[in-house]
């Protein structure tokens, strides 16, 4: 589990000024905390962390020497400025289920000889105790044939008794469709000529 260092921040200093000084602002909240803790983190450290961890990841947050087992709840990214504006962290309690998301990662797509993969979902929402949190679900698409569909209920996450899926179990994660080929183009041309 990765650790990110943070400092408590004074609300007297505006977030905009901290961003100019090379910080990312954030907030830590949780059931067993009185209020929330406004924090600031070094931008470079946050960018490094987000290369491996993302929304839904569990990390250790070191706030002025106090360690918190947290979930990255939300990452606000400013595409215009090309920077991370803020991050929300939820402090975890071992006996409390939390809402989270797991990123869907398709593997073995290079083994598909024909057809076109259509990915309909890129994350699955679920609830779990901190010990059962996952941030990625690997979906092996290597054996798929044209017409095959993988739904949320087919994922390994859905079979885990410690996890409660919140995304509709019937939702399609990925499907393999026939690619539109030259024959289809020829049929369309014949229909157009008949009209």
TrEMBL record:
Domain Large ribosomal subunit protein bL25 L25: 4-89
Pfam families: Ribosomal_L25p (PF01386), Ribosomal_TL5_C (PF14693)
An annotated GO cellular component: ribosome
InterPro entries registered for this protein in UniProt: Rbsml_bL25/Gln-tRNA_synth_N, Ribosomal_bL25/Gln-tRNA_synth, Ribosomal_bL25_b-dom, Ribosomal_bL25_C, Ribosomal_bL25_long, Ribosomal_L25_dom, Ribosomal_uL5_bac-type
Large ribosomal subunit protein bL25 beta domain location: 98-178
NCBIfam families: bL25_bact_ctc
UniProt keyword annotations, A-Z: Ribonucleoprotein, Ribosomal protein, RNA-binding, rRNA-binding
Domain of life: Bacteria
The protein's name in its UniProt record: 50S ribosomal protein L25
Taxonomic source organism: Fusicatenibacter saccharivorans
């Amino acid at each position: 589990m990765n650790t990110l260092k943070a400092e408590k921040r004074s609300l007297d200093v505006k977030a905009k000024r901290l961003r100019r000084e090379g910080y990312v602002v954030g907030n830590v909240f949780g059931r067993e905390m009185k209020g929330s803790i406004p924090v600031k983190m070094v931008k470079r450290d946050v960018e490094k962390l987000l290369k491996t961890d993302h929304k839904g990841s569990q990390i250790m947050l070191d706030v002025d020497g106090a360690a918190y087992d947290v979930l990255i709840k939300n990452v606000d990214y400013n595409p215009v400025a090309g920077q991370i504006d803020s991050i929300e962290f939820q402090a975890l309690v071992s006996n409390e289920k939390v809402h989270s998301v797991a990123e869907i990662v398709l593997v073995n797509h290079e083994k598909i000889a024909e057809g076109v993969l259509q990915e309909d979902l890129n994350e699955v929402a679920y609830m779990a105790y901190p010990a059962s949190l996952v941030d990625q679900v690997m979906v092996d698409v290597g054996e798929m044939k044209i017409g095959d569909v993988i739904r949320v209920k087919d994922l390994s996450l859905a079979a885990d008794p410690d996890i409660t899926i919140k995304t509709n179990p019937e939702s399609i994660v990925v499907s393999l469709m026939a690619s539109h080929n030259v024959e289809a183009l020829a049929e369309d041309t014949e229909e157009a000529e008949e009209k």
